[in-house]
Design goal:
The protein has about 325 residues and is α/β, with parallel strands linked by helices. Helix content is about 40%, strand content about 20%. The chain has 12 helices and 12 strands. Strands 3-2-1-4-10-6-11-9-8 form a 9-stranded mixed beta sheet. It has a 3-stranded mixed beta sheet with strand order 5-12-7. α9 packs across α12 and α11 packs antiparallel against α12. It is globular.
């Protein structure tokens, strides 16, 4: 029997995204009776719950709603994982879509190709016809330009071709905040805590020496995190608030990046550095979306700085 896969989707008022996200799961070639979907909903006020109920009646993948009274995604992750039954676990955003129908199959297969890994990281893929800004954010493979600059990079240690697909094994450090399709055994000690935060889990796994992961060439998700500059700035504020709250309470992955945050923040504030890099990447990779890097990096780092100052002065917290 195939291993059970649990997909956790934290959400709040996601009527625009939830059906497309679930459809990508419903298209999977993996046995549908071995997929468990848990939507951790913060009591949405729109049609999110009605759309999930309608989707359930039309599909054979079962979706269960787990109430998240704390609303914030990290609390929803923790609540859903406490009832999850899967051998493998994946935290999926409502604004994501699995790009391939055999996505789950290949990610489960990666654990056979590389038995010592704790998880598999998806590629963020440019979406055909997608918004330029979202394809740019997919290209930098991480939350924002500053995080891209400071995050430690994983090191490739093995490559294997199986069935015409290329599987790559990497080691990672505590300064790499990856989003992984996880082996339950690897993260069992973290299930039951108040929050479940991927960056924190990766940091702690690396500290314990459980620092091997894989990627499958070409396999990943489309991601639609923003629809406007205003929404992007709200997203930056949310990230800043969560990071400031988290770092006041515990160790974070940012502290394991070799003190790179201040110099790179200052470089991006100049506008010259991100714009120069923007043109270099656009020409070398022949991708016009890289031209967004300069303004996005400049706006986001100033947004973080101003939000950090406001949070400190007003003593705001995410939770």
């Amino acid at each position: 029997m195939a291993p059970l896969v649990t997909i956790v989707i934290p959400c709040l008022n996601e009527e625009r995204n939830i059906v497309r996200c679930l459809d990508s799961i419903g298209r999977q070639t993996y046995p549908h009776d071995r997929i468990e979907v848990l939507v951790a909903d913060g009591f949405s006020k729109d049609r999110t719950r009605d759309l999930i109920a309608a989707w359930n009646t039309a599909h054979d993948v079962r979706v269960t709603i787990v109430d998240n009274p704390r609303v914030i995604a990290e609390f929803g992750n923790a609540a859903a994982l406490r009832v999850a039954r899967g051998d493998f676990l994946y935290l999926m955003g409502c604004d994501e879509e699995m790009a391939q129908a055999d996505w789950i199959e290949r990610f489960v297969e990666a654990f056979t190709v590389f038995p010592g890994i704790v998880g598999v990281e998806q590629h963020w893929l440019p979406e055909p016809g997608g918004l330029l800004v979202n394809n740019y954010l997919a290209a930098i493979h991480i939350n924002d330009p500053l995080a891209r600059d400071i995050a430690a990079k994983p090191r490739q240690v093995a490559v294997r071709e199986v069935g015409g697909r290329v599987f790559r094994e990497f080691t990672f450090t505590s300064g790499y905040p990856a989003k992984l399709f996880l082996k339950r055994d690897a993260v069992e000690p973290f299930i039951g805590e108040e929050t479940f935060e991927e960056g924190q889990v990766m940091m702690r796994l690396a500290a314990e020496g459980r620092n091997r992961m894989a990627m499958v060439d070409g396999y990943g998700n489309y991601h639609r995190p923003v629809k406007s500059l205003r929404q992007y700035l709200r997203r930056c504020r949310k990230i800043a608030l969560k990071h400031t709250t988290r770092s006041s309470e515990r160790d974070t992955w940012v502290k394991h990046t070799g003190n790179r945050i201040i110099p790179f923040a200052l470089l991006n504030m100049t506008f010259i550095y991100p714009v120069a890099l923007s043109f270099v990447k656009a020409v070398s990779e022949r991708q016009p979306f890289w031209l967004l890097h300069g303004p996005v990096a400049f706006v986001s780092v100033w947004g973080y700085a101003l939000n950090w100052l406001r949070i400190k002065l007003l003593r705001e917290k995410a939770w």
